[in-house]
Amino acid sequence: MNKTKAFLAGVAVTLILIASVLGGAIADRLLNLSLLDRLIPRGTSSAQNGQIIFNEESSVISVAEKVSPSVVTITVETPQRRVLNFNPFGGGFESRIEGGEDQDIGSGFIVDASGLVVTNRHVVDQEDVTYKVITNNDKEYEVQKITRDPSNDLAILQIDAEDLPAIELGDSDNLKVGQFVVAIGTALGEFRHTVTTGVISGLGRGITAGSPFQGFVERLDNVIQTDAAINPGNSGGPLLNSAGQVIGVNTAVSQDAENIGFALPINTVKEGLAQFNETGSFASKAFLGVGYQMISRQAAILNDVPQGAYVQTIEPGYAAERAGIQVDDIITKIDGQNVAEYEDGLAGILLQYKPGDTLSIEIWRNGEIQTLTTTLTDASS
Questions:
Q1: 263: which strand partners?
Q2: 286-378: same fold as 71-159?
Q3: How much is the CA Rg of the chain, to the nearest whole Å?
Q4: Which of the following CATH numbers is that of domain 286-378: 2.30.42.10, 1.10.10.1100, 1.10.760.10, 1.10.3720.10?
Q5: What is the DSSP letter of 228?
Q6: Which residues, 6+ apart, have CB-to-CB distance to 148 below 8 Å?
Q7: Would you tell me how many other CB atoms lie within 10 Å of the CB of residue 128?
Q8: Which one, of 241, 192, 207, 212, lies nearest residue 123 by Cα?
Q9: pLDDT per position in the chain (381 positions), as tens?
Q10: Has 122 been annotated as catalytic?
């Protein structure tokens, strides 16, 4: 009898304990109490982490599948030439034919189904050569016409095609540092449709960009910095957000550091496209014709020179050369406006002017201030 009572008492205590635990668990979840979490984690951390990884991978895959049909490779057909070689071990001179083969030199993307392709101007800067566009399904189109915008390092290629998959253009005015991005292009001029990922590392950068294939460099302002791998050959390809929209045109990679690439904001491209669709050309922009580097206040003090735009190169035939500006000059003022006070430096001041405007330029040369006068030319001329 006592054993039966003891057994029933034990059962009752066990049921009470079970009810207490279940009741506490229900209350914890319904009332969002945290006590149970200390004993039994909700179990979402690893699942959520796995889900985050899965979502990121899915996003990249989705962007690549959506956009790759709109990304193209730019090739150039080098002209054939006969080369003579002397054989010192006998046989005299030998001749062979070089060139005549296509070489992948850059990337681009389709912006209109009728055959408009955007790329960098430095990718297609050579004259008297044949350029071709290769789609991701290996269809080949010869470029019929090239319209260049040297002030923005942009070019529009026209090919004879129809029903091409046009890419979706995004908005580069609301980008944030840390935002996820995807880059697609022909890496190293060899590996077509290479997909890389990263984030936006900086905005509003000013850089000196160029083409390793053609030895061309120029100054670009207000570009996007990214750590997505951008290699020679990626130039002209799209920088994309997680929705597969183009937010930039991959333009340059730093030769002095790793994981530093740059892209032109897509809104700059959209402005150029609007002008092109209306007139068939890019808008006229004032061009001084100098390559320069801005001198910071600290550098000016250390070197006992004024702040301004330090002239590194002069473009032959343009306004700067005609004014008498020389390499190593420092441009300090334009029409009385202090160059150093503008966020975008010399380029920011020149945006106020149009081709044909005459202006005064104050320069510092060998410790003396001089004032020159010149008439601005058209950047696309």
A1: 224, 250
A2: no
A3: 31
A4: 2.30.42.10
A5: S
A6: 121, 124, 125, 154, 155, 282, 380
A7: 5
A8: 212
A9: 555 655 555 656 566 656 555 555 555 444 454 444 444 444 443 444 444 444 667 888 889 899 999 999 999 987 666 665 655 555 555 666 666 678 888 999 999 999 999 999 888 888 778 899 999 899 999 999 998 886 678 899 999 988 899 999 999 888 899 899 999 998 887 888 889 989 998 887 766 554 433 334 455 667 898 988 887 788 889 999 988 999 999 987 665 556 678 898 999 889 888 888 877 777 667 778 888 888 988 989 999 999 999 998 888 888 899 999 999 999 999 999 999 887 667 877 887 888 888 999 999 999 999 999 999 877 655
A10: yes
Q: Is the CB of residue 201 less than 8 Å from the CB of residue 276?
A: no
State the CATH architecture for 71-159: Beta Barrel (2.40)
Catalytic position from the list 70, 153, 172, 329: 153
Which CATH superfamily, name and number, covers 180-278? Trypsin-like serine proteases (2.40.10.10)
Q: Which helix (H) or strand (E) holds 198?
A: strand 191-211
Q: Is 68 exposed, middle or buried (0-12, 13-18, 19+ CB in 10 A)?
A: middle
What residue spans define the domains of the chain?
Answer: 71-159, 180-278, 286-378
* Paired strand residues for 375: 358
Cβ(129)–Cβ(95) under 8 Å? Answer: no
Taking phi over 0 as left and psi of -120 to 50 as alpha, with beta for the rest, 12 belongs to alpha
pLDDT of residue 276: 83
> Could you give phi then psi for residue 104, rounded to 5 degrees?
-70, 125
Among 70, 104, 107, 122, the active-site one is 122
Residue 32, Cα to own-chain centre: how many angstroms? 47
Query: Is 68 an active-site residue?
Result: no
